[in-house]
Amino acid sequence: MTSINMRLFSLKRSLELKDIQQEDFEVVSEEMRRLDNIVRNYLEFSKPHKLKKQRINISQVIDMTLDLLRYRLELHSVEVIRKQSDNLPLIDADPELLKEVFVNLMVNACEAMENGGEIVISEEEALAENIGRAVLVKVKDNGPGMSEEVRKRILGPFETTKADGTGLGLFIAVRIIEEHGGTLELHSKEGQGTTFSLTFPACGEV
Fold this sequence. Notes:
With about 210 residues, this protein is an alpha+beta fold. It is built from seven helices and seven strands. The protein has helices at about 1-15, 20-45, 60-70, 70-75, 95-110, 150-155, 170-180, and strands at about 55, 80-85, 90-95, 115-130, 130-140, 185-190, 195-200.
């Protein structure tokens, strides 16, 4: 996939394309990105992750995610509001895998809010059942929400509401959070938006 994408990029730069040819290149490139995403999802589904944990501040991971998605958020007319508590505990986590989780949640929110909207991200310290001292992150959108039927099954494998979705994104996100000793919960009602609550064990005092 990478080799094909590189060749396409090279051809696009070296050729003088007419408008219709430019459109064809964009379609092919987008399909290659979609196929690459499908392959990566299936590979991730088939094997456990090798965590590269380090002591991190979850806010920095969210900062990286927002920076990565800045153009997409603007394209979908989505405003992001941050609510951050001071002196959040650190967590032991793989920042790249957590970034993948937040990208998935926010892209889903953007696509659900077809006419634009708002995503509120809150970060706070909490006491969580079976975890104890924890960091709680909530990602809330004001999109159309989900029916009870969809909500009950959407976190399972191969479940999707998208015509071209693999149904693995949220399932993999749940698995990543659980591999970190945390939890991912979904709260949604039709017409009332969707909230994902992610809980991570806090590091002990150094």
